[in-house]
């Protein structure tokens, strides 16, 4: 258990019940590192940082249970000491990042297409609901499916469905051998190569085209990594690129134009949009710096079969939902948060 462990769930539950009684909207916040994502919330601040600490951790079972306010860096240090990691490689985007914020934002790093998303590693949660109840969903093993889907639903919900107080996560061993390569390839050729390599047993765990060349990360056993390095060629580079990409520290992100995160089919060619692009996730995620109107960007992206999210000041940060899907979102919100007090409007004005 963490030396800074503190169970503040009683205080959080009391604040939620008080808000329910007053019909007072709440702005749920951990470290605030993801505050620029989504719409601003007008509500009374409910902070989770006090509710922190590793509750249980069994390295032999590859499972850790953590309170939501626990600093993400603290959890990662504890896992690193045991030779383990969060395989989804979640971005911090700020020194105050918490485990609850990691789950609520649902963001994953460069390893996402090969290892899975945050949602894929959530085994169970504890949640304060809009009925003022503190409930546990799921469990600490993958085979325990009771309530499992609801726990996974918390990933990417941005606090709109309840106050996450605790989460159980599947962790994985760190790879034995890592190699970082850079190949001089134009984007179109790099995308074709990635599609070809995706059909082969290569130990690729990250792939990003920076506009000039293709960065690859290889992870696995010594034999497979060595063989792949010899086969793929390129030059060996320092590993810092992946951390800078994940945390948006590359020079690309310093451009003053609005930042867009675009999700697309992996083999989509470069988008015909003004601005500059960075191709991540082997082609499935594109970062776009562009001053083009939001409607123009989303029209181009939708035609390519994708969706776009705006980071920062934007009237509609998340891709607008079709009417049928929005109806499901509203029904779910009504079930878990009938008074609409949890982060109202954070994702969409309607919820």
TrEMBL record:
Return the Gene3D superfamilies for the record.
3.30.465.10
Describe the location of the FAD-binding PCMH-type domain by residue ranges: 1-174
What GO molecular function annotation could you give as one example from this UniProt entry?
A: glycolate dehydrogenase activity
Known EC number(s)? 1.1.99.14
Query: A Pfam family matched by this chain, by name?
Result: FAD_binding_4
Query: InterPro entries, from UniProt?
Result: FAD-bd_PCMH, FAD-bd_PCMH-like_sf, FAD-bd_PCMH_sub2, FAD-linked_Oxase-like_C, Oxid_FAD_bind_N
Q: Which UniProt keywords apply?
A: FAD, Flavoprotein, Oxidoreductase
Q: Does the keyword Flavoprotein apply?
A: yes
- The residue stretches assigned to a coiled coil in this entry are none
Does Glycoprotein appear among the keywords? no
The name of this protein is Glycolate oxidase subunit GlcE
Q: Which organism is it from?
A: Aquipseudomonas ullengensis
